[in-house]
Design goal:
Elements lengths: L13 E9 L8 E11 L2 E10 L2 E8 L4 E5 L11 E9 L3 E6 L4 E5 L10 E4 L5 E10 L4 H8 L1
Antiparallel strand pairs: 1-6, 1-10, 2-3, 2-9, 3-4, 4-5, 6-7, 7-8
Length: 152
């Protein structure tokens, strides 16, 4: 991953767009499904997840230095099924986190600081089968406007 060399190794701005299909079971309990995660450790990570309860879903952008940003959207998008289509964009900067879902909503949250991600590993949906049809990583460009553009 590209890094800035004037101190700790960090990715200062990152926007991720991920589109594809995923499958998960209705467990009738609270479960968290990773869409993607860039993780060094529990406190230093970025990612997007779906939290499910009895077949409904919340889309979450994870920011390791400052908690999470969550919003509820059209739950039918994330209903348990074979090959559920999704399109999600998340962005992270030193000042804000943004998340949006294709055909859904978008929102932002102010954050303080940015995770230390030197040596972080990028993973995709280790919990559930997922097929990725489109993946875009943009470094040095982030924000709600870009996120909305990617899911439009």
């Amino acid at each position: 991953m590209p890094t800035r060399q004037d101190g700790q190794q960090v990715i200062e701005d990152l926007t991720v767009y991920l589109e594809g299909r995923m499958t998960y079971a209705d467990l009738n309990t609270y479960s968290t499904l990773n869409l993607w995660e860039l993780r060094k450790d529990a406190a230093n990570r970025l990612g997007a997840k779906v939290d499910t309860v009895s077949g409904t879903g919340d889309l979450i952008a994870v920011h390791g230095a400052d908690g999470v940003l969550t919003y509820t959207f059209d739950t039918s998008t994330w209903a348990p099924d074979m090959g559920v289509q999704f399109g999600v964009a998340t962005s992270f900067s030193t000042t804000e986190t943004a998340v949006a879902e294709k055909g859904g909503f978008s929102t932002t949250k102010a954050v303080s600081g940015f995770p230390y991600l030197g040596g972080a590993a990028l993973t995709f949906s280790p919990e559930s089968p997922m097929t990725i049809s489109s993946l875009e990583l943009r470094l040095g460009a982030s924000g709600i406007d870009l996120v909305r553009e990617l899911v439009a």
